[in-house]
UniProtKB/TrEMBL annotation:
Transmembrane segments: none annotated. Its EC number is 3.2.1.131. It is an enzyme of class 3 (hydrolase). The lineage of its organism: Bacteria, Pseudomonadati, Pseudomonadota, Betaproteobacteria, Burkholderiales. This is Xylan alpha-1,2-glucuronidase. Residues 457-681 form the Glycosyl hydrolase family 67 C-terminal domain. It catalyses: Hydrolysis of (1->2)-alpha-D-(4-O-methyl)glucuronosyl links in the main chain of hardwood xylans. Residues 7-125 form the Alpha glucuronidase N-terminal domain. InterPro entries: A-glucoronidase_C_sf (IPR037054), GH (IPR017853), Glyco_hydro_67_aGlcAse (IPR011395), Glyco_hydro_67_aGlcAse_N (IPR005154), Glyco_hydro_67_C (IPR011099), Glyco_hydro_67_cat (IPR011100), Hex-like_dom2 (IPR029018). It comes from the Bacteria. Keywords: Carbohydrate metabolism, Glycosidase, Hydrolase, Polysaccharide degradation, Xylan degradation. Gene3D superfamilies: Alpha-glucuronidase, C-terminal domain, Chitobiase/beta-hexosaminidase domain 2-like, Glycosidases. The keyword Hydrolase applies.
């Protein structure tokens, strides 16, 4: 039965007409030049993929003939000025796939400057072949693929603990079997590597940002080295999250002060030890002085002092430090305003230009915490002299776990395309990551949604979020609808009836979640321990900045967090043009209205409705959308396999019930604080 294990690498046979045409094009696979583990992986994938799609596995051969697929590094190809120029423009990871004459015969050529480029090109061609109909035909007859990644660092961050539990993971235990490593290697590691390489993901942080000192002990370094050896042929480097106080906790230093030479020397020795085991080790990810984690501020030092000390230990080996900007502390006195959304900027902006070259500051998507919708983080564009990394959350901590269907492509796209107006000119977040401001090139990271669940992500549709993250990491300018189309064709069916219906379902899903959870810029209304389900009334947590009431500020007089000049003034952290618009509710995008403003319940919305009416209308729309998604799936379901069809249906039913729960709970609570009746036409509670 269909179990979802294959992800999007299914390679189901093409329809009959296309299959025969493909067979004629893939008689043999020829590789020019020396062999390598990466080229072996590319050949194996082509054999597996073409074998599935064409119904006949191409045989390996040494000399090209008509109908060969040829894998060749630039250096191993016969001279051709045009091709050489094109290849030069494709960099260290790019690829070229074309139909061409080579040594006098017509072949399909996959060419690149490097071995990993050849693997990426192989996957790109297989993806194109699975696209469906006319696109598949073009990929057979006249492939013309050429691409290079926009960002050099494209990472998955696993929040996986060493006991195999996963922080905010909803797909079972960690795939890293720390108990059995390093000697026992689950074949799943290789399939993980294939899936990532098919997208171009080139790094994996193996462990949780809330890290344990133990991960840097010799046994765990050996375990990480074993994983690195499996991932290496697929172009994936391993990284580790490290706990700031590691040397202190291992009783090997007397403190963890970054300016203490003994501490720096310890990290230097540790880095040397890691690189002896993992010569291409990527580097460290650090969560410091954040949510109770230790950090350099414990010693009166800055984030830059801490990051730079680690960076100097890694620099001789070519490693990097990804230092997270996710920092906030509670208000010093009760009742005092300490806007969590403003704090990262306050702490990091002034450190711009003070980081070593091999430090990347990793900034979360959203100044609070991965909510269904947040404005873009104000640090993007505000640190021209620092390399920045975007941290997306692929696991759906705040979007219904693996139960709710929410395709995150549109969420990622919205953030990457946002024009920061840095320096007063058009500079999207994607441009900022690529170093458009002053050449400091960063990257992109996604908090993984992967676990040991048979289908990897818990819900089949959550595979799409891994996929979309990876595709956007390679090319942040891709459109989320096009990505959904690729994914659906490969994962469900290239039959347009299925593919297009799946895409339509996906494309409405994220906005539905925003509507039934946190419309109009509301945020952080969820149950505060588990983060599943509504709890806007919670007001008594040990830290006031964890209370939902702190964020929505609903009362008799109105609702919303005032981040304009009359409030926390976090709006002023954006570029002047943007800040000006955000200061005024009339020019604030309605979908972020209550993020930036506290407004009376009878505030007039552009629609002519009052704010209260509009709010309830959004909640109602969210529930209606969840119902419509169920109905849409009921039409698709007969066209897909029964196992996945039933699983999606169950989850959508639960999603609809939970959308209703969110809506009823939030509307009832806001009614209670506002004293307002349900607007006419609103749906009564279930
Ligand atoms: C969120 C999440 C935590 C996580 C933290 C982080 O607050 O709920 O589980 O540790 O983000 O990103 O560090």
């Amino acid at each position: 039965a269909e179990d979802g294990y294959q992800l999007w690498l299914r390679y189901s046979p093409l329809p009959a007409g296309l299959r025969e045409r493909l067979q004629a094009r893939v008689a043999t696979i020829v590789q020019l030049g020396a062999d390598s583990p990466t080229l072996r992986a590319a050949r194996q994938e082509l054999q597996r993929g073409l074998g599935g799609l064409a119904g006949r596995t191409p045989a390996p051969a040494v000399a090209p003939r008509a109908g060969s697929v040829v894998l060749a590094r630039a250096a191993d190809l016969p001279p051709s000025p045009a091709r050489e120029a094109q290849l030069r423009s494709l960099g260290q990871e790019g690829y070229l796939v074309q139909r061409t004459r080579l040594h006098g015969v017509e072949v399909t050529l996959i060419a690149a400057n490097t071995d990993i480029g050849l693997l990426y090109g192989s996957f790109a061609w297989l993806r194109a072949l699975q696209a469906g109909a006319a696109d598949s035909l073009a990929a057979i007859n006249a492939p013309a693929l050429a691409s290079r990644p926009a960002l050099p660092r494209r990472l998955l961050d696993h929040w996986d603990n060493l006991d195999r539990s996963i922080e905010r993971g909803y797909a079972g235990q960690s795939i890293w079997n720390w108990w059995e490593l390093p000697d026992i290697l689950d074949p799943r590691y290789t399939d993980y590597a294939r899936a990532n390489a098919s997208l171009g993901i080139n790094g994996a942080v193996l462990n949780n940002v809330n890290a344990k000192a133990e991960v840097l002990s010799a046994p765990f370094i050996a375990k990480a080295a074993a994983l690195a050896a499996v991932l290496r042929p697929y172009g994936i480097r391993v990284y580790l999250s490290v706990r700031w106080s590691t040397p202190l906790e291992l009783h090997e230093t007397r403190n963890a002060d970054p300016l203490d030479p003994a501490v720096a020397a310890w990290w230097q020795r540790k880095a040397d030890e890691i690189y002896r085991a993992i010569p291409d080790f990527g580097g460290f990810l650090v969560k410091a002085n954040s949510e109770g984690q230790p950090g350099p501020q414990d010693y009166g030092r800055s984030h830059a002092d801490g990051a730079n000390m680690l960076a100097r230990a890694l620099a001789p080996h070519g490693g990097i430090v990804m230092w997270r900007a996710f920092v906030y502390s509670p208000p010093a006195r009760p009742g005092q305003m300490a806007d969590r959304a403003a704090q990262a900027y306050e702490q990091f902006k002034r450190l711009d230009g003070r980081f070593e070259r091999n430090v990347i500051v990793q900034v979360k998507n959203g100044p609070i915490d991965f909510q269904p919708r947040e404005p873009v983080h104000p640090l993007f564009g505000a640190m021209p002299d620092t390399a920045l990394m975007m941290e997306f959350q692929v696991t759906k901590e705040y979007l219904g776990f693996a139960t709710h269907l929410a395709y995150l492509g549109p969420l990622f796209e919205e953030a990457l395309r946002f024009d920061t107006r840095a320096g007063g000119v058009g500079t999207s977040v994607a441009d900022v990551l690529a170093g458009a401001q002053a050449g400091h090139v960063g990257g992109i990271a996604g908090v993984a949604n992967i676990g040991s669940s048979r289908n990897w992500t818990g819900a089949d549709f959550d595979q799409a979020n891994w996929y979309a993250f990876g595709r956007l990491a390679w090319d942040p300018k891709l459109g989320s609808a096009a990505i959904a189309g690729e994914w659906a064709a490969q994962t469900w069916s290239a039959d347009p009836r299925v593919r297009d219906a799946v895409v339509a379902l996906m494309m409405r899903s994220r906005e539905a979640v925003v509507d039934y959870m946190t419309p109009l810029g509301l945020h952080h209304l969820m149950g505060t321990g588990h983060h599943h389900g509504p709890a806007p009334w919670v007001d008594d947590l040990e830290r006031p900045d964890w209370n939902p009431t702190y964020y929505h500020r609903a009362a008799r007089d109105g609702i919303g967090f005032d981040r304009s000049a009359s409030g926390s003034n976090a709006a002023a952290q954006y570029a002047p043009e943007i800040a000006r618009r955000l200061q005024d509710p009339a020019t604030t995008p309605p979908e972020l209205l209550l993020w930036f403003h506290h407004l009376p319940w009878d505030y007039r919305m552009p629609s002519g409705r009052t704010l209260w009416e509009e709010l309830v209308a959004h909640y109602d729309r969210g529930v209606a959308e969840a119902a419509a998604m169920q109905a849409q799936w009921a039409r698709i379901r007969p066209l897909v396999d029964p196992r996945r069809g039933a699983d999606v249906a169950q989850r959508l039913a639960r999603q609809h019930a939970e959308a209703q729960w969110w809506r009823d709970a939030c509307v009832a609570y806001f009614q209670q604080v506002s004293g307002l009746p349900l607007p006419p036409g609103a749906v009564p509670p279930a």
